[in-house]
Amino acid sequence: MNWHLITDEQIPFHIQVRTLKQCAKEVELLHVRNQHASLQRLRQQIEHLLRLGFTKQQLLLNHHSEAAIAWGLGGIHLKETQLDQLHALKKAHPAMTIGASVHDLDAAQYCTEHGADYVYAGHIFDTPSKQDTPGRGLDFLQNIASNVSVPIYAIGGVTTHNAAQCLEAGAQGVAVMSAVWQSDSPKTVARQFTKGEQ
Fold it and tell me: If you write DSSP's letter for every residue of 83-132 in order, what string do you get?
């Protein structure tokens, strides 16, 4: 199964490192998201991840496109509010993986038309990080997946138990956080995502 692991800024970085030491070999792509960190702090985190064995090509940086370019990372992940940057970024840096988060079909179609390499669609299931908003559900995911050509990754409340449902609804893969970070056995969970096991 194609899957992305997203860092969780609610968990201290040294704790995330401890988890990654157990499961890094199973992680195909690590999406670094820390909206409140300075660029200096993000750079330090990136350097630490490289020492753990990740390659620059395996790292996506959320929001900070100029930093991702300057540091030679594999990709950029844009917020939905940054979609107007998508076309220019992809034109200037065609070799970089550039994706974005969307919450409706119009935004997903915009991403397709402007060169996105993938889209996160969500949130699909109920998730503690969005307690006041119910999940949009598999019908929402299926509608987006069937109406755009860009690969769709389901996000929001995705676990090893429901990931297969996302693929059946048309997703190319999944993007996860708490399923790994909150697990007592992150290596096992990561391996299950990689192998597509429940």
Answer: GGGHHHHHHH-TTSEEEEEESSHHHHHHHHHTT-SEEEEE--S--GGGTT
Q: Which helix (H) or strand (E) holds 6?
A: strand 2-6
7 with 16: CB under 8 angstroms? yes
Query: Quick check: 125 and 157 in contact, CB under 8 A?
Result: yes
pLDDT, tens digit, for every residue of 26-76? 999 999 999 899 999 999 999 999 999 999 999 999 999 999 999 999 999
Buried b (16+ CB within 10 A) or exposed e, 50-86: eeeebeeebbbbbbbbeebeebebbbbbbeeebbebb
Indicate yes or no: pTM above 0.90. Answer: yes
3-state secondary structure 159-184: CCCCHHHHHHCCCCEEEECHHHHCCC
Q: State the fold for domain 2-195.
A: TIM Barrel (3.20.20)
| Domain ranges (residues) in the chain | 2-195
- Residue 110 to residues 49, 89, 149, 189, Cα–Cα distance (Å): 32, 14, 11, 33
Q: What confidence score (pLDDT) does residue 80 get?
A: 95
**pLDDT, tens digit, 9 for 90 and up, residues 79-114:** 999 999 999 999 999 999 999 999 999 999 999 999
